[in-house]
Design goal:
single chain, 583 residues, mainly alpha, three-stranded antiparallel sheet, 27 helices, 59% helix
Length: 583
């Protein structure tokens, strides 16, 4: 992804797999007739768990923050209520749901920034859109009954227009997961062409039983029409495109499969002719890659296994004419399905399985040399990922080898935005060996922290996020305090960048890197002692950030699960830009 030299964006998504426990259903009330003849004793209402003194303190702080939110402007009011709902979910599910709805209602009063049309980072210029998306997504997370999706549907008419379009796909996916395929189909019919998802179409086709073959045909036909209507510039190959849908389900649509393959090949030719550089690279998670000089060559690799069964003569001629595609198919005879049978097969995708493909990317730069350098960095990143996976696999049975392999990882990542691979590997080893070999675990973590001492503040913040928890699990409170103090120092450095008068971070303050670093230090400090956490809270110099962190502290006291937070930088001038992913 590229950004203009005048702006930068940094996005970090933390705790991607967090969520909430399912809502508890109340026992059904007996009808008067049943009550009159029943001799069984009435069921007692479940006794509420008694709160600890620490939780009582957290609840008081949470109620105070909820009341104070009424006096805030719309953006912080919606944000605070959203975070308050996390804490209530620990003690009162109904209250949490009510506060979350109030957060959504508060978001309706938020207005876009003046330059919103030129801004691609929502927490900076489209705060309403960002908060509404987060709040509605959260409403989906309990996910044990159909009411969650239905209540989000009811709120959609009140949401930002872009949010409504996105949530149609999200809702359809949720209904597919719950088996309500008819409602999912109805929502898919409402998705406009620009937001149509071939991945969603694949989810639907995989979920439809064999007995509903006509519905499978209808879904594929809808996707095919959408593909044919798209502008050429919107058809860059990726892991979710129409070609992938055809690879997975061509046997279910014999009447359309050949026409669809021909259409993809023809449009790839048109795209190649419209741009000088149209190479495509498939980067595999085992560190290998497949490079094609044109998009047409890539599409041949993708589609020839289908053509070999549908039109053998045509497939034979194409293979004879295109060496690159033939060589790739000699190595991977089933094309994409050879690379990853889970993802590119016709069954529902196992989301827990490690994918085989890291990325499918067309040329990013027009200059072939510059693009070649970019693709080489991508491949090096995949190789490092494969080495990290090896370290992870070794930790269970051969911790010493895992430690040595982690020590052999590169000191620097090919990506400017990633932490040191060696430090990341050592941190993994440290956590894995806490019980089995605490001495080696501590040595690994100490070395990892040493390697990150001179890193950029944001990299340090990402790396340190869970480090204090390592020392707490090891029973080393002094080590935990030391790591937390390091987090606070990094937060102060980040705040100097975020609040730079000459080039401030324009994102919403709750998403600032400094705000997130203070949040992580508070969450960990609360595990040490309330007094330690309150000392950190009192030293936060920004009143807005301090107010947000008061809510985070209350949630930590209650024992609420750590919530997902986007971390954003959006500066007008000066620094590089990119997308950070958490380690």
């Amino acid at each position: 992804m590229q950004y203009s030299a005048a702006r930068r964006v940094t996005v970090v998504v933390l705790c991607l797999c967090c969520g909430f426990s399912a809502q508890t259903k109340s026992p059904a009330t007996l009808s008067p007739q049943v009550q009159s003849v029943s001799t069984a004793p009435a069921k007692k209402k479940p006794t509420k768990a008694k709160l600890t003194p620490q939780q009582e303190q957290g609840l008081r702080l949470l109620k105070s923050a909820e009341a104070a939110a009424a006096g805030l402007s719309a953006p912080p009011r919606a944000y605070v209520l959203w975070q308050v709902s996390h804490g209530y979910r620990k003690v009162n599910q109904a209250k949490a749901d009510a506060v979350l709805r109030r957060a959504f209602l508060a978001s309706r009063a938020i207005e876009d920034q003046p330059d919103a049309d030129d801004c691609r980072v929502e927490p900076a210029c489209h705060v309403q859109r960002w908060l509404q998306s987060e709040i509605l997504e959260e409403m989906m997370r309990p996910a044990s009954d159909k009411r969650d999706a239905e209540r989000v549907e009811k709120l959609l008419p009140e949401a930002d227009a872009e949010v409504r379009k996105r949530m149609l796909e999200r809702l359809a996916s949720e209904y597919i997961r719950k088996g309500n395929l008819d409602r999912a189909r109805q929502l898919m019919d409402q998705i406009d062409d620009d937001h149509y998802s071939y991945f969603l179409a694949g989810q639907m086709m995989a979920a439809l039983p064999v007995s509903r073959g006509e519905d499978r045909l209808a879904v594929f036909a809808q996707a095919f029409r959408n593909y044919q209507s798209r502008n050429l510039e919107d058809l860059a190959p990726d892991q979710f495109d129409f070609g992938v849908l055809l690879v997975r389900f061509w046997r279910d649509v014999p009447s359309m499969a050949l026409d669809a393959a021909d259409a993809i090949l023809e449009r790839s030719k048109d795209r190649d002719e419209s741009k000088k550089a149209h190479s495509v690279t498939i980067t595999l998670l085992n560190g290998k890659s497949l490079a094609f000089e044109s998009e047409y060559e890539y599409r041949l690799f993708q589609l020839l296994p289908i053509l070999q069964e549908l039109d053998q003569s045509k497939a034979k001629d194409l293979l004879a004419e295109h060496d690159k595609a033939r060589a790739a198919l000699d190595q991977y005879p089933s094309g994409m399905q050879s690379l990853d049978p889970n993802y590119y097969g016709d069954k529902p995708i196992d989301e827990k399985a490690m994918p085989g493909v890291m990325n499918v990317s067309g040329a990013v730069y027009d200059d072939p040399v510059t693009d070649g350098e970019y693709q080489a960095k991508m491949q090096l990143g995949a190789q490092i990922f494969a080495q990290l996976q090896k370290v992870t696999e070794e930790m269970k049975d051969d911790p010493e080898s895992a430690y040595q392999d982690a020590m052999n990882l590169p000191l620097q990542s090919p990506s400017h935005f990633s932490s040191s691979p060696r430090a990341v590997g050592l941190r993994r080893v440290a956590f894995a060996l806490i019980k089995k070999n605490p001495t080696l675990a501590k040595a690994a973590m100490n070395e990892a922290r040493r390697l990150m001492q001179d890193a950029e503040p944001l990299k340090q913040a990402l790396f340190l996020a869970e480090v204090p928890d390592f020392y707490l699990k090891l029973g080393d409170e002094d080590g935990a305090r030391s790591a937390i103090k390091d987090q606070v120092k990094v937060a102060e450095k980040l705040y100097a960048i975020d609040s730079d008068p000459g080039d401030p971070n324009l994102a919403f303050k709750g998403a600032w890197p400094s705000s997130n670093a203070w949040r992580n230090s508070l969450l960990q400090a609360t595990k040490v002692s309330s007094a330690f956490a309150e000392e950190i809270l009192a030293q936060i110099p920004d009143p807005d950030i301090a107010g947000f962190q008061q809510v985070m502290y209350a949630n930590a006291l209650l024992g609420a699960e750590k919530s997902s937070i986007a971390v954003i930088e959006w500066h007008k001038v000066g620094r590089h830009g990119g997308i950070f992913m958490s380690n």
